[in-house]
Design a protein that fits this description.
The complex is a heterodimer of chains A (about 180) and B (about 180). By secondary structure, chain A is an alpha/beta fold. Chain A has helices at about 5-10, 25-40, 70-75, 90-95, 100-110, 115-120, 135, 160-165, and strands at about 15-20, 55-60, 75-80, 85-90, 125, 140-145. In chain B, about 30% of the residues lie in helices and about 15% in strands. Chain B contains 5 helices and 6 strands, in the order ββααβββαβαα. The interface of A and B includes residues 43, 59 and 148 of A. Chain B: One of its GO terms (biological process) is mitochondrial translation.
């Protein structure tokens, strides 16, 4: 193999690092998207027998949004292996103990249950907040688009833009706001 | 690919030394026909030897043909190839026409083909005209200088326009219409 071909091979099979912002995202919906990148399904060179999966870095996992009443309804099962070792943890409880766990379990569930699953999961990095270690951040070259729209809070919009926003009418001078 | 194929040698479709381009070299080197003179299981092979073997040998002078009669053992054909492969094939109870076809297979194949799992069913010296794909092909060049994470690249940009945005655009249009009239 010539030097050019060798470099071409490295370029084609290079592991890309993607970042995904979990803020306001449904973990079970986004797990389907993250899974594609972890397994390399988004690449034209994909084949189940070649190692072309990418690394996905999830940030803001503390800010995920579950559907409906899931924070109170969804239970996560764990068994220690001993008699009477079964336990059911509610989603809000699990999330308060470890804010990365729900997204991790969602991706784990989305992957197919074969021998590759544990190795694929090794390529998923989850951080509860915005901060990422520098050695991780310097590798990131792509961002995965979110699924849901993330609205901006009114007090986070700059004052000028709020003033410029079109109004139907002005409140009278003597109007008392509740 | 199933579990039974895990230890099968894997390879690609290929011809040794561009065989068949310009000249053809028969890859079959030696063929040994083992049979019994009395048992019924060798009937087909005996028929083949009687009727077709001399023609086969004269048509393929590069192939060494051996006959090995052995008492009360089932018939077998062993083919040896230029690349060192050895194919053993039982001819027990096979008819004359079946054996003719199998020997033709052994003559024309280029080695122990059935012992390799083909990774791809096609081969080309030029896999891509436009250049092989890399993770950076078709990527937005803006990503090269972007500081990620950035909502410009991360936010969903395929959502339909909201009523608020539509109203805002209508308002801006109105403002533009009003301004020229004032001038």
């Amino acid at each position: 193999m010539s030097a050019v071909k060798r470099v071409q091979q490295w370029a084609t099979f290079a592991r890309t690092w993607h970042i995904f912002d979990c803020k306001w995202q449904d973990p079970y919906e986004s797990a389907g998207v993250i899974k594609k990148y972890l397994m390399g399904l988004h690449k034209p060179i994909y084949h189940p027998m070649n190692d072309c999966g990418d690394v996905v870095v999830c940030i803001n996992s503390r800010e995920i949004a579950l559907r409906g009443d899931d924070w109170r309804q969804r239970a996560y099962f764990h068994h220690t292996g001993y008699p009477g070792g079964a336990s059911w943890t509610l989603a809000w409880e699990l999330h308060s103990k470890d804010p990365t766990m729900i997204i991790k379990k969602a991706v784990y569930r989305a992957l197919k249950g074969n021998l590759q699953r544990r190795h694929t999961m090794e390529r998923l990095l989850i951080y509860p907040g915005e901060t990422i270690p520098d050695d991780v951040k310097q590798n990131i070259t792509n961002q995965i688009r979110q699924i849901r729209f993330v609205p901006t809070r009114l007090d986070h919009i700059p004052e000028e833009e709020v003033q410029k926003y079109p109004k139907v009418m002005e409140y009278p001078e003597d109007y008392v706001l509740k | 690919m199933s579990n039974s194929n895990l230890f099968l040698k894997s390879g690609f479709v290929r011809a040794p030394l561009q065989n068949g381009v310009g000249r053809y070299v028969c890859q079959l080197q030696r063929i040994v026909l083992k049979f019994c003179k009395s048992h019924g299981g060798s009937r087909g092979l005996r028929d083949y030897i009687e009727q077709d073997l001399v023609d086969f040998a004269s048509n393929n002078p590069s192939v060494v043909v051996y006959l090995k009669p052995r008492r009360h053992r089932s018939p077998v054909v062993v083919a040896e190839y230029l690349n060192g492969d050895r194919v053993w094939m039982s001819m027990h109870n096979k008819t004359h026409s079946e054996i003719t076809k199998w020997i033709e297979v052994l003559r024309t194949q280029q080695g122990d083909v059935s012992a390799t799992r083909l990774r791809k069913y096609q081969y080309t010296d030029y896999p891509s005209v436009q250049g092989p794909w890399t993770p950076f092909t078709y990527k937005d060049p803006k990503l090269n200088v972007a500081e990620l994470p950035d909502p410009e690249f991360g936010a969903n940009n395929r959502l339909p326009m909201s009523a608020t945005e539509q109203l805002k655009i209508m308002f801006e249009k109105k403002q533009l219409e009003i301004k020229p009239k004032e001038e």
